[in-house]
């Protein structure tokens, strides 16, 4: 079986190094799959987290610990978006430089992953995403969205409505208080070709052995594989892949 290459997008207030380390057990199981972890372009400051835990951002100058985001909001009401254009330019250039079979994201990264999957189906909807009038990359074979949602962005309405067809695996935590059932439904409703799996935990990537095997098999074999559901067994407790509660997801 040929190897797969998957672009991986971390959650808000994480970065590529942190997320890669926290998915170390999954990476070890992903034989034949190259996981490419990308850093979001925006470095976050305490003011970028609204709420009591805003001070929990690591202020270290160590790049490996620098918290990042794919976009931010200028106001606590979350009505003024900043930084999305920069992120889309980064994604465009990344896709133009390398071929990927699929895309995977967690939390805000999952929202972006579904947006990019849909945008590759409708590249003309956002002309700056084109290179010499052509999309930078063909549509993905699949998308994996963990704790995902439909981003509250004007581009979402253009690209994600009425729906997108890229086969997408949605993984939802039954006790997730950050991306609630209602927010999860917002992206499920516009995913035409979907598989939904639930775990008993909250806002994290499930990492128990049965989930690692399922995810590794899905990334390696794709949506056409007849994989048994891991949902019948209890999920692992949070493994550190969570996004801070007060973050913008």
UniProtKB/TrEMBL annotation:
Keywords: Hydrolase. InterPro entries: AB_hydrolase_fold, FSH-like_dom, LovG. GO terms for molecular function: hydrolase activity. It holds the Pfam family FSH1. Residues 240-249 have a biased composition (Polar residues). This is Serine hydrolase domain-containing protein. The keyword Membrane does not apply. GO terms for cellular component: cytoplasm; nucleus. It comes from Marasmius oreades. It comes from the Eukaryota. Residues 222-249 are annotated as: Disordered. PANTHER family: ESTERASE OVCA2. Transmembrane segments: none annotated.
């Amino acid at each position: 079986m040929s190897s797969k290459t998957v672009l991986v997008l971390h959650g808000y207030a994480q970065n590529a190094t942190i997320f890669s380390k926290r998915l170390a057990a999954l990476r070890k199981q992903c034989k034949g799959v190259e996981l490419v972890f990308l850093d979001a372009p925006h470095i976050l400051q305490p003011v970028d987290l609204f709420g009591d835990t805003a001070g929990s951002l690591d202020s270290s100058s160590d790049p490996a610990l620098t918290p990042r985001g794919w976009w931010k909001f200028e106001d606590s009401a979350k009505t003024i978006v900043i930084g999305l254009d920069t992120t889309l330019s980064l994604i465009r250039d990344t896709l133009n430089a390398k071929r990927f079979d699929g895309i995977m994201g967690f939390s805000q990264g999952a929202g972006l992953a579904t947006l990019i999957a849909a945008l590759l189906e409708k590249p003309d909807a956002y002309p700056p995403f084109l290179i010499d009038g052509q999309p930078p990359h063909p549509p993905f074979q699949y998308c994996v969205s963990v704790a995902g949602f439909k981003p509250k962005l004007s581009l979402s309405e253009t690209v994600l409505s009425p729906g997108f067809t890229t086969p997408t695996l949605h993984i939802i935590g039954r006790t997730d208080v950050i991306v609630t059932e209602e927010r999860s439904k917002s992206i499920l409703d516009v995913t035409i070709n979907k598989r939904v799996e639930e775990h008993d935990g909250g806002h994290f990537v499930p990492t128990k052995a049965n989930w690692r095997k399922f995810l590794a098999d899905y990334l390696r074999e794709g949506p056409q594989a007849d994989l048994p559901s891991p949902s019948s067994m209890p999920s692992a407790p949070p493994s550190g892949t969570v996004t801070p509660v007060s973050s913008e997801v």
